[in-house]
Amino acid sequence: MSDDTLLQSRRKALKCMAYGGAGTLFVLAGGVFTPVDLARASNDKSGIARLGKPLFVQISDTHIGFNKDANPDVNGTLSQSIEIVNAMPEQPALIIHTGDITHLSKPAEFDLAQQLLSGLRTTELHTVPGEHDTTDATVTEYFNRFGKASDNKGYYSFDHAGVHFIALINVLQFKPGGLGTLGSDQLAWVAADLKGRSSSTPIVVFAHMPLWTIYEPWGWGTGDADQLMAQLKRFGSVTVLNGHIHQIVQKVEGNVTFHTARSTAYPQPLPGDGPGPGPLKVASDLLPKMLGVSSVSVVKHPSALALTDTALA
Amino acid sequence: MILTRYLTLRKGASMAVLCLLAGGHAAMAAPPDGAQVVIKDFMFSPNAVTIKAGSKVTWSNKDDEPHTVVSDAGLFRSGAMDTDESFSFTFDKPGTYHFTCSIHPRMVGTITVE
Fold first, then answer.
1. Which of A13, A95, A114, A118 is paired with A107 by a 20 to 30 Å CA distance?
2. Which residues in chain A have their CB less than 8 angstroms from residue B65's CB?
3. Nearest CA in chain B to A69
4. A279 at interface of B, judged by CB pairs closer than 8 A
5. Domain count, chain A
6. What are the pLDDT digits (tens) for A202-222?
């Protein structure tokens, strides 16, 4: 994606978010994203009703254990994010965490993260690890707590309300130069998992690192994701959800919508803006606007998924 | 951590004395407390170090972001170093050892052990 396109979509996204305050709604209709201003949407009840009950909420990059200037209270901002979710008029059926649950893979950080996340009214939680979750010597801390769903492989799938969810891990091996990888075993598993499924099944794929190349010099991408996307090409509605970059970037390509979520802990700079993808310190009144969660609803007609990003302020 | 540093200093001091007495190798010897690599702005500085077998290398993280050092050959793995934390490894065998940060694998470096 060229810098120009990236900046443009970010400007568009920012413009929409400035309007409603609490968030912006993007409705997928026939593969084209239509921004719907939340403030106007609140006066249009039938429009909201058409959006349907939130199917799930995506939380990402909670970084429990981080305590530097960019946000000295990541526990507090996670709790605020959880309060937003708990206050939704209809609760999501499930929660997806797209990784970097902890900051340093420490047992105490995992324990605290699990404790805080248990404050969600929705109890069904599905996770994938980020590279911050897999730095311990034996790479077992994450899997001891969250590995059951995938037999400690890191990838698994499940179904809910007719939507097929695929959880992938792309932080265990890195391409030289820094992009994540899925690996041949995982790609073969995906092929077997998708075999025989009707192309009208809505698919949600989630993994920590972006499954398209957003900014290669900072490792914001996955080297073999094109092989994954080739397998998903035949499906009518595919939503790809990632984290890792601590900011919202979206792309629509045919029937596929790509979306990276905000962090609940701290923002990161725009691609290339600084020496690397480290924590970005912003003015304290700006911080809550740059942290948040995403909720995804099934839109009944046409059958597709609509995605809402909600900031803390 | 403090204890380790103290021991290193003592060992280094005696090594320095030996070098002076021997009258040679001063230019090639590692600094008394081992080679230092600073991690700053998502870079290893220096990113190429040459040491004698038996010498120690210490990586220190000065970034706001954690980093790791992981040997490509599986020889060592630091775990996440937070700001101002460091990790040391003593290289006994001559050879060329490539390493990366497992969180930001674009960061790479080499230790050459003679």
1. A95
2. 276-279
3. B64
4. yes
5. 1
6. 899 999 999 999 999 999 999
For the whole model, what pTM was predicted? Answer: 0.81
Q: Which positions in chain A touch B82 (Cβ < 8 Å)? A: 103-104
Q: From the CA of A66, how many Å to the nearest CA of chain B? A: 9
Domain that holds residue A152: 3-289+307-311
Tell me the C-alpha to C-alpha distance, in Å, between residue A36 and each of A20, A202, A268, B89.
9, 22, 26, 56
Give every CB contact of residue A119 below 8 A, 6+ residues apart in sequence.
A79, A82, A86
Please report whether residue A299 resides in a domain. Answer: no
A232-282 residue pLDDT tens: 999 998 999 999 999 999 998 988 999 999 999 999 999 999 999 999 999
Q: Which of A68, A136, A174 sits opposite B64 (nearest CB)?
A: A68
Q: Is residue A137 part of a domain?
A: yes
**Cα–Cα distance between A99 and B26 in angstroms, integer?**
49
Question: Cβ separation of B80 and A105 shorter than 8 Å?
Answer: yes
Domains and CATH numbers, chain B: 34-113 (2.60.40.420)
Q: Is residue A135 part of a domain?
A: yes
| Shortest Cα distance, chain A CAs vs residue B31, angstroms | 29
Q: State pLDDT tens for residues A102-157.
A: 999 999 999 999 999 999 999 999 999 999 999 998 999 999 999 999 999 999 99
Where residue A271 sits, what CATH number does that domain have?
A: 3.60.21.10
Q: Are strands B108-113 and B48-51 parallel, antiparallel or unpaired?
A: parallel
